[in-house]
Specification:
The protein is an alpha+beta fold and about 110 residues long. The protein has a single domain, classed as S-adenosylmethionine decarboxylase, CATH 3.60.90.10. Helices cover about 25% and strands about 45% of the residues. It has a six-stranded antiparallel β-sheet. The radius of gyration is 13 Å and the shape is globular.
C-alpha cells in the first residue's frame, strides 16, 4: 500500500529514545528507506519542558519528525510526503531500532 502520511505512536523500553545520536541516526535513515531526498541536515534537540528528544528533517516532498517522551517510554513519529511511499518499510525499521512493545499506526492517502 502506498500512502503519503504515516503516523506512528509507540511504547518502547529502550534508552535510544533519550539519546540524540540514536534519534539522529533514525531520522537520517528514513528518507533513504522511502527513497526521498533530504534538503537540510536533521535538527535534533532535547526537550525543555518535558524530558525527551525532538528531531525533524525536511525532505524534498515534505518532512519527517520524531518526538520522544522518556518519562513515559513513548514516541511519536510523523512521516509526511507529497510523494507516495511504502509505510511498512518505515514501520519495520522503527520496530527494530526502537524495540516497540506496543504501537499504533495510522496512514493517510492524500490526493493531489
Amino acid at each position: 500500500m502506498k500512502v503519503t502520511h504515516l503516523i506512528v505512536d509507540a511504547v518502547c523500553f529502550t534508552e535510544r529514545i533519550a539519546d540524540k545520536k540514536s534519534i539522529r541516526k533514525i531520522i537520517e535513515a528514513i528518507p533513504k528507506i522511502i527513497q526521498m531526498k533530504t534538503l537540510i541536515k536533521p535538527v535534533v534537540i532535547s526537550g525543555k519542558t518535558l524530558p525527551g528528544i525532538s528531531g525533524i528533517v525536511i525532505i524534498e516532498t515534505s518532512h519527517i519528525a520524531i518526538h520522544t517522551f522518556t518519562a513515559k517510554d513513548y514516541v511519536n513519529i510523523d512521516v509526511f510526503s507529497c510523494k507516495p511511499f511504502n509505510p511498512d518499510k518505515v514501520v519495520n525499521y522503527l520496530k527494530k531500532e526502537l524495540n516497540f512493545k506496543k504501537y499504533w499506526v495510522q496512514t493517510v492517502a492524500r490526493e493531489l
